[in-house]
């Protein structure tokens, strides 16, 4: 899917392209996210775990996976919309 702000999502978990530079430090290339379903799910689960750590196991955390982790009023509204 296309994210109009940051780029696009890759693979089953729609890992956002904004994370590609960080993932490259761990040897994960964008093509791994589209050709290796296990790597894609593992990577998506990693970012979902970060959201759970920040917001607890809540729908807000699930919304953060899609809408972003910034704590602003606009992001809060986007998270609620996704949740």
Automatic annotation (TrEMBL):
Domain Transglycosylase SLT, first and last residues per copy: 10-79
Signal peptide positions (record): none
Transmembrane regions listed in the UniProt entry: none
Pfam families: SLT (PF01464)
Listed name of the protein: Lytic transglycosylase
Species: Escherichia coli
């Amino acid at each position: 899917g296309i994210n109009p702000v940051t780029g696009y999502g890759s693979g089953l978990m729609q890992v956002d392209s904004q994370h590609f530079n960080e993932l490259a430090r761990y040897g994960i290339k964008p093509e791994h996210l589209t050709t290796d379903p296990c790597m894609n799910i593992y990577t998506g689960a990693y970012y979902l775990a970060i959201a759970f750590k920040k917001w607890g196991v809540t729908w807000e955390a699930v919304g953060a996976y899609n809408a972003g982790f910034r704590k602003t009023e606009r992001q809060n509204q986007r998270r609620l919309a996704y949740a």
